[in-house]
Design a protein that fits this description.
The complex is a heterodimer of chains A (186) and B (138).
Chain A: H1 4-16, H2 25-45, H3 61-71, H4 76-86, H5 90-110, H6 114-132, H7 140-155, H8 164-174, H9 177-182
Chain B: E1 7-8, E2 12-13, H1 14-29, H2 49-66, H3 71-92, H4 103-121, H5 128-131
Antiparallel strand pairs in B: 1-2
Helix pairs in contact in B: 1-2, 1-4, 2-3, 2-4, 3-4
Classes of the chains: A mainly alpha (186), B mainly alpha (138).
Chain lengths: 186, 138
């Protein structure tokens, strides 16, 4: 009797469809693929954010994206912010954007603090949507998909599969204080 | 062997081998993007000749680290991170610099550098009893 119980339990689990994602090879592969492709999305985004003027001279690049927030407003308060704060300080803003997107791309690539970085990706994709969501020729769903992709990466904690989070999380949970609390981001 | 997963292959913990091999694979394969047509559709990252050699060397060091020489991952990570810093300085100075490529090259190198360095420096695997206890369901 004792020997059959685990088998029955496993069968019951399978028939109820409650197999854990961590035990499903295809699910794990999908999670890794999602994370790495999202990483390359952000990595590619860092190639055309070129300091020091970030496209201001050529009216291109990041400059054009921020200008579109003014020309084709999605959310008027953001347009005001873009016109009066971001464009006059594009040098500083550009470095901040480059730093944020490089951080997102690099951390997603190796699955480091994936929950935190995934949420940062959602925020950054939302900011891009606020800039160009109404620009002619842009496809707003691109930005919805970017947000949802980053949300999925954060939600499933994609860094725990073939990533640093899978290595660091058990160690963080065993430590004390702030390090242990940092595990919530992994 | 007082730690689970402890040392297999002379120095690399079992739970590090998978990520090490995965990052090494990414590093070795990434120069393929340099063969793709220029443009956003296929070229997901700019890999110059120098950065291509760097990431392949880092990938091979990572593979060696996965077979038991964990410290080689530190070398791979330091190599990539140093190249990322050089690329960052070149960006600020508006030159292509010795590494070449673009901001995407810097991001790729920074990511791989972070990954290899952490895997090279991380300590022993925690006890599975503790791992399955507090926080395991979070």
């Amino acid at each position: 009797m004792a020997r059959t119980e685990p088998v029955q339990a496993a069968a019951a689990t399978q028939t109820s469809g409650a197999v854990g994602l961590a035990d499903d090879r295809l699910a794990r592969a999908s999670v890794v693929t999602l994370r790495v492709v999202m990483a390359f999305l952000w990595i590619q985004n860092t190639r055309w954010k070129i300091p020091p003027d970030f496209g201001a001279d050529r009216k291109d690049g990041l400059y054009r994206y921020v200008e579109d927030a003014v020309t084709y407003p999605v959310f008027p308060p953001y347009s005001w912010l873009a016109e009066h704060v971001l464009l006059p300080n594009l040098g500083l803003f550009g470095w901040a954007v480059l730093a944020a997107e490089a951080t997102i791309g690099a951390c997603l690539l190796v699955g480091f603090m994936t929950r935190l970085v995934g949420l940062l990706g959602v925020a950054q994709a939302f900011a891009i949507f606020l800039s160009v969501g109404q620009t002619p020729g842009e496809w707003p769903w691109s930005y919805y998909l970017m947000m949802v992709g980053c949300l999925a990466v954060a939600g499933v904690a994609a860094g725990r599969v073939a990533g640093l989070d899978g290595v660091l999380r058990p160690r963080l949970l065993q430590s004390g204080g702030l390090l242990r609390r940092a595990a919530v981001f992994s | 062997m007082n730690r689970v997963g402890a040392v297999t292959g002379g120095g690399t913990a079992a739970d590090l081998r998978g990520p090490l091999r995965f990052f090494s694979g990414l590093a070795v394969v990434s120069p393929v993007f340099s063969l793709a047509p220029v443009g956003d559709a296929y070229r997901w990252v700019d890999v110059s000749a120098v950065s291509g050699v760097l990431v392949v060397v880092a990938g091979l060091l990572g593979l060696a680290a996965s077979t038991g020489r964990q410290r080689l991952a530190v070398v791979a990570g330091a190599l990539c991170l140093a190249a990322a810093v050089v690329r960052l300085v070149s960006l600020a100075l508006q030159t292509s610099g010795p590494v070449g490529g673009s901001g995407s090259t810097m991001t790729l190198l920074a990511g791989l550098g972070l990954g290899f360095l952490v895997l090279g420096l991380v300590g022993p695997t925690p006890d599975p009893v503790s791992r399955g206890g507090a926080g395991a369901r979070r």
